[in-house]
Automatic annotation (TrEMBL):
Keywords: Membrane, Transmembrane, Transmembrane helix
Mode of membrane association: Multi-pass membrane protein
A Pfam family annotated for this UniProt entry: MamF_MmsF
Main location: membrane
Database matches in InterPro entries: MamF_MmsF (IPR019109)
Transmembrane stretches, start-end: 36-59
Name this protein carries in UniProt: DUF4870 domain-containing protein
Cell location: Membrane
Length: 88
């Protein structure tokens, strides 16, 4: 994000990756609470968290490949930032 004013393409990709990381952090925190209360729930919530992390890894790899080719990539999430115009 240090170059967000001079490189809008890099800023957009950094923003998308940051939003994905924030979402995964929230998911981790939400799945930790029931695990601490009920030990058996850790298996269920742990499996859900593992699946979410694997999906996030695939999305991150796809984003990296697109960025390396100079293409924009939006993570398929219900939240995110507005696309940045390359001419702004």
């Amino acid at each position: 994000m240090a170059k967000r004013d001079t490189l809008p393409f890099a800023a957009e990709h950094a923003r998308q990756a940051m939003l994905l990381g924030d979402g995964l952090s929230a998911l981790s925190a939400l799945s930790l609470a029931p695990t601490l209360v009920i030990f058996g729930a850790g298996v269920v919530f742990g499996a859900i968290l593992l699946l979410a992390l694997l999906v996030a890894m695939v999305w991150s790899l796809r984003a990296a490949m697109k960025a390396a080719c100079g293409e924009r990539y939006r993570y398929p999430l219900p939240y995110g930032s507005a696309p940045v115009s390359p001419f702004s």
